[in-house]
């Protein structure tokens, strides 16, 4: 696996919200490829590269828990921001959380652990000085040292992710016995097609002995 | 997964003709207006079911396209009287607009059709004057504000059942296709829908229905999508999941697929080889959740569960219950106008039955505080609410607890720790040390000990019945406390205003070192009192029992007990107190014989 990396991530809680049950959040059973991409990008990303998740290893049994939280009900409108930019003043760019609240329920995952197997591809913005070895080395070095651009999270910002690099000669972390066998996880969000109108794409996720093969994004349109 | 399982369930129900086809919905209809070929209204037929005390509307499958909210939207060939006939009981500010919308909708849908029934219907609408209604044969005030369908005089079928009308309706629905996209339920590229029907029948949700999929504030929207475009679900799948859900939530006594656990309305369904096997599995699960009160039935279920717990395959015990039947459990709780999924659980029947058997085994307490297998889940939950004069209210049950307890039972995982703290707090607050509460304490401790067994912890086993050899301080103190209470009862009788349990239970179970020395001093008075009253035998028995327990305790009382030890305290207390009742027969005999010797 020349270009490939393996990253072990884990955390106490996680919420990979399903798009259809987004208001009263309900999590997918496991991490989605786009959430995994987000974690990789938090550690290392440049405009010249694009991360592609190849495989997700689930390490711990899937456990749910539900809770209620007070969250915001609105967001700043695009208009407010463009107006502020035009006028050069920011006094209207404010959101008072205590005045616009909503109580929402969330069914989240408890005690998760995954290994993400991924590689990167070059985008059209790569040029001669971008070599695979360079970016791979930078990622590995950063991951080994625990460096990141921002704290990677497990689905939502409230649930931070711990991470460690699985070296290429290192063995895989232990997978719980409860995950053996084949399990159909249904259709899962692969990623959003940002190049083409922000259309969501889904793929049929099947877990075999804890391993989910992620199809290339182009094939996700089942 | 939830919605796709519901959509699958819809397909299975549709094969059995139990649910409406796309574009139709089961609605409550009370009356039918009969009209002539010339479009003259003739009479009003009452369609209600009058077998009960109050007439109930009947259910018909009528054409429905989308849910009506605040705007004006008329349904084809049926509607409530304000729309269809232009009359209502109140003042009806929008009455004229609503009736006009109804007429306009019918004309735009069926205006082109040459079918004589529909032509007559349109003639009726043309000539209709709202004040005509009261003069019609069969009219009563009950007609106001109910849903009305139509029928041509001399026809058997209602107008909405007319094949031509249906064909036109389905064609009209399909012509209004949405933007194509990938459906996240079926994975197919199909026209995406945006109208999610209301889900009706979840307790404490709005009676007009609540939404499972909704984006009612802009904080829930992403990537520039507005409202329901955020969830890319095809029209067919929306219809499928919502119809299946409403079918599961239908009211009526024949619906055994719904049960209430705390604030969560719980639905379940099975996927088996055929409908009969699925129904058997659903019936079995209904019984697990609400064990029958009939003694014979309960005994049958009890022995079945015991054998399942011992590892015998379910199919061997009952041929209708197949081990690999897939089982789905969905818990929905209302949150304002929305529904949230409290829990979602899919497993096969075999494992599910095993988890239930384990649950009942963990609750096992001797002597049994209940008759039959074990109390239903809702009764367990009542034990966690404050008991006022022996009664608890459903709204006092912590909602989170209900969901987590269900999850623990279904998956065989740890009971929520909150359960133990809650029950102990309740016992301390209202002093009601009931069998169910003690059983819950025991279940939490037993299950935790079992699940921690491989993690090398050295917790003592929690006994099912009185264990005189246990050296656990919490358990011993519980037993001691029961004996002290026995002594008080023996000395002062049962008519004590405030027993030591009423006064000291909380303190004794939490901080033994500060309470037990006082209690032990007082017990001497009780014992000497008893001796004076010619109850020397009993006094001797209690004294020796106290001695034996204190011996096991070591040289000092623990300063405080943790929550887990307080659970053991409750169990010890229960065991020791019950031992007195169960042995009473023998004890009184023994007492008399000692007295005989004295004399």
Automatic annotation (TrEMBL), chain A:
| InterPro entries linked | CRISPR-assoc_prot_Cas5 (IPR021124), CRISPR-assoc_prot_Cas5_N (IPR013422), CRISPR-assoc_prot_Cas5d (IPR010155)
A biological process from GO: maintenance of CRISPR repeat elements
Q: Which GO terms describe its molecular function?
A: endonuclease activity; hydrolase activity; RNA binding
Signal peptide annotation: none
Q: Name one Pfam family in it.
A: Cas_Cas5d
Keyword hit for RNA-binding: yes
Asked whether the UniProt record includes Nuclease among its keywords, one would answer yes
E.C. number: 3.1.-.-
Mind listing the UniProt keywords for this protein, alphabetically? Antiviral defense, Endonuclease, Hydrolase, Nuclease, RNA-binding
- Recorded superkingdom: Bacteria
* Family matches, as NCBIfam families: cas_Cas5d (TIGR01876), CRISPR_cas5 (TIGR02593)
Hey, which family's this protein in? Belongs to the CRISPR-associated protein Cas5 family. Subtype I-C/Dvulg subfamily.
Functional summary from the UniProt entry: CRISPR (clustered regularly interspaced short palindromic repeat) is an adaptive immune system that provides protection against mobile genetic elements (viruses, transposable elements and conjugative plasmids). CRISPR clusters contain spacers, sequences complementary to antecedent mobile elements, and target invading nucleic acids. CRISPR clusters are transcribed and processed into CRISPR RNA (crRNA).
Listed name of the protein: pre-crRNA processing endonuclease
Automatic annotation (TrEMBL), chain B:
InterPro entries given in the database record: CRISPR-assoc_prot_Csd1-typ
A family per Pfam: Cas_Csd1
Q: Which CDD domains match?
A: Cas8c_I-C
State the name under which the record lists this protein: Type I-C CRISPR-associated protein Cas8c/Csd1
The species is Halotalea alkalilenta
């Amino acid at each position: 696996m020349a270009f490939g990396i393996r990253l072990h991530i884990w955390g106490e809680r996680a919420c990979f919200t399903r798009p259809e049950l987004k208001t009263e959040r309900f999590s997918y059973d496991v991490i989605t490829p786009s959430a995994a991409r987000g974690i990789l990008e938090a550690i290392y990303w440049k405009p010249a590269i694009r991360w592609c998740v190849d495989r997700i290893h689930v390490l711990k049994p899937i456990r749910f828990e539900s809770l209620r939280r007070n969250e915001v009900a609105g967001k700043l409108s695009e208009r407010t921001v463009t107006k502020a930019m035009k006028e050069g003043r920011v006094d209207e760019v404010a959101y008072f959380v205590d005045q616009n609240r909503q109580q929402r329920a969330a069914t989240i995952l408890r005690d998760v652990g995954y290994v993400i197997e991924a590689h990167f591809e070059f985008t059209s913005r790569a040029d001669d000085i971008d070599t695979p070895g360079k970016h791979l080395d930078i990622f590995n070095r950063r991951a080994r040292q625990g460096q990141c651009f921002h704290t990677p999270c497990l689905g939502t910002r409230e649930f931070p992710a711990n991470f460690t690099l699985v070296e290429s000669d290192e063995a895989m972390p232990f997978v719980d016995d409860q995950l053996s066998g084949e399990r159909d996880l249904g259709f899962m969000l692969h990623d959003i097609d940002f190049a083409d109108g922000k259309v969501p794409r889904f793929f049929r996720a099947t877990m075999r002995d804890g391993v989910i093969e992620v199809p290339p994004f182009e094939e996700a349109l089942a | 997964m939830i919605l796709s399982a519901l959509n699958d369930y819809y397909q299975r129900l549709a094969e059995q003709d139990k649910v409406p086809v796309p574009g139709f919905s089961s609605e409550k209809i009370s009356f039918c207006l009969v009209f002539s070929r010339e479009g003259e209204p003739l009479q009003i037929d009452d369609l209600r079911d009058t077998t009960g005390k109050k007439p109930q509307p009947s259910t018909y499958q009528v054409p429905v396209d989308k849910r009506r909210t605040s705007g004006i939207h008329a349904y084809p060939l049926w509607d409530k009287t304000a729309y269809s006939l232009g009359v209502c009981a109140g003042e009806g500010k929008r009455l004229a607009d609503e009736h006009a919308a109804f007429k306009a909708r019918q004309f735009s849908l069926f205006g082109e059709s040459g079918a004589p029934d529909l032509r007559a219907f349109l003639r009726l609408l043309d000539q209709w004057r709202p004040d005509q209604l009261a003069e019609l044969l069969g009219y009563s005030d009950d007609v106001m504000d109910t849903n009305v369908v139509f029928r041509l005089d001399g026809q058997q079928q209602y107008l909405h059942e007319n094949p031509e009308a249906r064909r036109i309706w389905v064609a009209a629905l399909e012509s209004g296709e949405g933007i194509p996209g990938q459906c996240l339920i079926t994975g197919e590229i199909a026209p995406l829908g945006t109208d999610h029907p209301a889900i009706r029948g979840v307790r404490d949700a709005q009676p007009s229905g609540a939404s499972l999929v909704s984006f009612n504030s802009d904080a829930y929207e992403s990537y520039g999508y507005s409202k329901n475009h955020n969830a890319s679900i095809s029209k067919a799948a929306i219809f499928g999941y919502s119809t299946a859900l409403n079918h599961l939530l239908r009211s009526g006594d024949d619906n055994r697929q719904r049960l209430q656990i705390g604030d969560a309305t719980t639905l379940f369904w099975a996927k088996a080889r055929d409908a009969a096997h699925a129904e058997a599995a659903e019936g079995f699960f209904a019984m697990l959740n609400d064990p029958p009160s009939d003694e014979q039935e309960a005994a049958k279920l009890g022995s079945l569960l015991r054998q399942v717990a011992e590892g015998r395959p379910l199919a061997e015990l009952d041929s209708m219950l197949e081990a690999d039947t897939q089982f789905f459990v969905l818990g929905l709780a209302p949150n304002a106008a929305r529904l949230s999924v409290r829990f979602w659980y899919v497993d096969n029947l075999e494992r599910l039955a095993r988890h239930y058997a384990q649950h009942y085994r963990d609750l096992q307490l001797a002597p049994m505080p209940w008759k039959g297998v074990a109390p239903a889940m809702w009764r367990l939950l009542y034990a966690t609410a404050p008991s006022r004069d022996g009664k608890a209210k459903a709204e006092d049950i912590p909602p989170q607890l209900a969901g987590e307890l269900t999850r623990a039972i279904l998956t065989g995982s740890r009971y929520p720790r909150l359960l133990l703290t809650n029950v102990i707090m309740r016992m301390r607050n209202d002093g009601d040390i009931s069998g169910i509460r003690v059983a819950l304490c025991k279940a939490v401790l037993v299950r935790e000990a079992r699940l921690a067994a491989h993690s090398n912890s050295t917790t003592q086993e929690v006994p099912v019945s009185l264990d005189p050899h246990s050296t656990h301080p919490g358990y011993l103190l519980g037993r001691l406390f029961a004996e002290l209470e026995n002594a008080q009862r023996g000395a002062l009788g049962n008519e004590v205003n405030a027993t030591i349990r009423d006064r000291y239970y909380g303190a004794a179970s939490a901080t033994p070192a500060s309470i037990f020395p006082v209690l032990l001093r007082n017990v001497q008075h009780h014992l000497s009192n008893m001796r004076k009253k010619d109850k020397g035998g009993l006094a001797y028995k209690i004294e020796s029992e106290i001695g034996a327990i204190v011996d096991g305790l070591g040289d000092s009382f623990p300063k405080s007990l943790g929550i887990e030890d307080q659970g053991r305290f409750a169990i010890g207390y229960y065991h020791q107190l019950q031992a007195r009742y169960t042995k009473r027969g023998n004890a009184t005999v023994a007492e008399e014989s000692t007295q005989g010797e004295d004399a």
